[in-house]
């Protein structure tokens, strides 16, 4: 312990680099900028040198996770596909399955099953994804992972959503249904 009033001459291992960084702020900033730019260039290079058709994030074919997804997909079609969802909200005092909104809601669920690229749709009525007050429902949707033009599937889903919105329900798309298309 250092007596009161005594000067501390020895600097700690963390104090010396901190003092040096404080004295040379511009150099430290340039080093950090170089590191960030370098990481960005490395990421861009790794994406540009990937095999054509590789989707990010890629799952390496030899991993246990990929093997499990392949086994599940073989038994349950669409189970290993990327997932999206549609959240449906009915106005206050109503429900998604009311006489007013039920037909539009049911038509949306049925229409999703006919969209090219959609491999599975879970009906909220049987899947248990309707809130207790019946105002909110989530429709899980699986989309084929190897679509050449995922935007076409997204456009078809958005068209169905627009029709349902016109009937008075609020809809929001999530997951792969809301994700931007990967670059060329």
Task: Give a verbal description of the structure.
The protein is an alpha+beta fold and 184 residues long. It has 2 domains: 15-48; 77-175, Multidrug efflux transporter AcrB pore domain (Alpha-Beta Plaits). It has helices spanning 15-23, 25-48, 64-75, 102-112, 124-127, 150-166, and strands spanning 83-89, 118-121, 136-143, 170-175. The protein has a 4-stranded antiparallel beta sheet, with helices on one face. α4 (102-112) runs antiparallel to α6. It is elongated.
Précis, in short:
This protein is α+β, with helices and mostly antiparallel strands and 184 residues long. Helices cover 42% and strands 14% of the residues. It is elongated and about 80 Å long.
Summarize the SSE layout with pairings.
Layout: H1 15-23, H2 25-48, H3 64-75, E1 83-89, H4 102-112, E2 118-121, H5 124-127, E3 136-143, H6 150-166, E4 170-175
Antiparallel strand pairs: 1-3, 1-4, 2-3
Provide the structure class.
alpha+beta
Name of the CATH superfamily of the largest domain: Multidrug efflux transporter AcrB pore domain
Q: Strands of the biggest beta sheet: in what spatial order?
A: 2-3-1-4
N-end to C-end Cα span: 65 Å
Strand content: 5-15%
> Strand count, sense and closure of the main sheet?
4 strands, antiparallel
Write out key terms for the chains shown.
184 residues, alpha+beta, Alpha-Beta Plaits, 2 domains, four-stranded antiparallel beta sheet, 6 helices, 4 strands, elongated
